[in-house]
Design brief:
Elements: H1 17-22, E1 26-30, H2 38-47, E2 54-57, E3 74-75, H3 85-88, H4 96-101, E4 110-115, E5 129-134, H5 145-149, H6 156-175, E6 184-187, H7 190-200, E7 205-206, E8 226-229, H8 238-248, E9 252-255, H9 261-267, E10 272-276, H10 280-289, E11 292-295, H11 304-310, E12 315-318, H12 323-326, E13 333-336, H13 341-352, H14 360-367, H15 372-389, H16 394-398
Parallel strand pairs: 1-2, 1-4, 2-3, 4-5, 5-6, 6-7, 8-9, 8-11, 9-10, 11-12, 12-13
């Protein structure tokens, strides 16, 4: 592995300032495109800002992405040619720093990366401007290491391998967030901004993600079951929810799939149902008919609580991470204070005993503080700010924006 001590030793050519301002070329960089979750919806909203962006990513699984980003011109790495890569690409994490550095964005004037792993480490030209939207630092190597590789979470051989590469990956991750590579860091929450400050020693401006309010116009018909939606990853703490609902003998429906599925199914009692991965219409139907949404993990932001609230569904969330920025205790949900079965069970029992009643309209109203329009407005402001701060003409950048997103547009002026 190449030492991370000087990750910018090899430089791509710099575009001429005059050409950049006359005809700005935009590169979008994303870690991988293997499915459409929160990060991909954010990427889609960013892509909509520009006339003709080029997309760069480590791996793109055919058919896994739809909508506007599926139609973008896309450049991938050598990983794309490896048979079966879509199934085991995560195991190649130690190689991903080198992979992302093979993507050539040297002819692009503006680089916007969407990163939870290595995308922010792409090598820009020295005269280009790079704005990186960070969903999280490389969480499985930083403060969530024990969640993924701790005792009982991973086989001993996997833990040993992760520990051996951790110093290299964290050193590389810290090095590539230097101002030489990234002109401006953006975080999806204040929680993530604090993680960035601790890991990289840099400040990040907060631009919250959004919820698609057009999806959630169903009339609520609350039933008796509680709902969880998400990937079966260690930080989601689905195990905590299962233990609480086993104890209370109350119905819980869990939507999703992932690495912990076998273990979670083995834990589940008779009242816990696994619905598997579902399409949005089926999930929306569950949002409209559940009693409450359960969110027991520590998320960097968390889109599913916003989806629940947009449906009028109150959220039971652990009082940590991004949930503190979205869920209003007693108004749009309940925040429980300890990551324990007892604390979660007490919150559930408050709803069962009707000790707290949520007004559907007030729950829905909370989600309206996180709209796509507001996200795009904030992203435009940050991109323009980074561009001007780098000494570039703001007028030159306007030609890169799609219709409706220019400086003079009434909606974004």
């Amino acid at each position: 592995m190449r030492s991370p001590a000087n990750p910018d030793k090899k430089r791509t050519k710099s575009p001429s300032p005059g050409a950049a301002n006359a005809n700005v070329r935009v590169a979008l960089v994303h870690d991988w495109l293997t499915g459409k979750r929160g990060g991909e919806y954010v990427l889609e909203a960013i892509a909509e800002l520009f006339v003709d962006p080029q997309l760069f990513t480590l791996l793109r699984v055919p058919g896994a992405i739809d909508g506007p980003i599926a139609r973008l011109k896309c450049t991938t790495t050598w990983l794309q040619a490896v048979p079966g890569a879509a199934k085991f690409y995560r195991h190649l994490l130690p190689l991903m720093p080198q992979m992302i550095e093979t993507l050539d964005v040297g002819d692009y004037d503006l680089v916007v990366s969407s990163s939870h792993c290595v995308a922010k480490g792409v090598r820009k030209a020295s005269g280009a401007v790079h704005v990186s939207y960070v969903h999280a630092p490389m969480r499985y190597m930083w403060d969530r290491f024990e969640d993924y590789f701790g005792p009982g979470k991973a086989p001993m051989a996997v833990r040993a391998a992760a520990m051996s590469v951790r110093p290299y990956l964290t050193a590389w991750d810290r090095a590539v967030t230097s101002v030489e590579r990234v002109d401006r860091l953006l975080a999806n929450s204040a929680f993530t901004a604090e993680q960035i400050r601790r890991a990289y020693g840099r400040e990040a401006n907060v631009v919250h993600p959004f919820v698609d309010l057009t999806r959630f116009d169903r009339r609520r018909t609350p039933g008796e079951f509680y709902l969880m939606v998400g990937a079966f990853a260690p930080n989601k703490r689905i195990d905590l929810a299962i233990e609480a609902f086993n104890r209370l003998a109350l119905p819980l429906v869990v939507v999703g799939q992932g690495q912990d599925e076998a273990r979670l199914r083995e834990m589940a009692g008779a009242t816990v149902k696994f619905a598997g991965p579902l399409a949005n219409p089926a999930i929306d139907e569950l949002y409209s008919s559940a009693r409450a949404f359960v969110f027991p993990g520590v998320e960097d932001f968390g889109i599913t609580p916003l989806e629940a609230m947009a449906s009028g569904l109150p959220v039971i969330a652990y009082a940590a991470g991004g949930a503190l920025e979205t869920v209003v205790d007693g108004e749009s949900g309940i925040l429980f204070r300890e990551p324990t079965v007892e604390s979660l069970a007490q919150a559930i029992e408050r709803i069962e005993a009707k000790g707290i009643v949520f007004e559907e309209e007030r729950v829905r109203a909370r989600s309206r503080a996180f709209t796509r329009d507001l996200f795009q407005r904030r992203m435009l402001d940050e991109i323009r700010g980074a561009w001007v701060q780098a000494g570039r003409s703001p007028r030159g950048l306007e030609g890169a924006f799609a219709d409706g997103f220019s400086q003079g547009d009434a909606n974004f002026a």
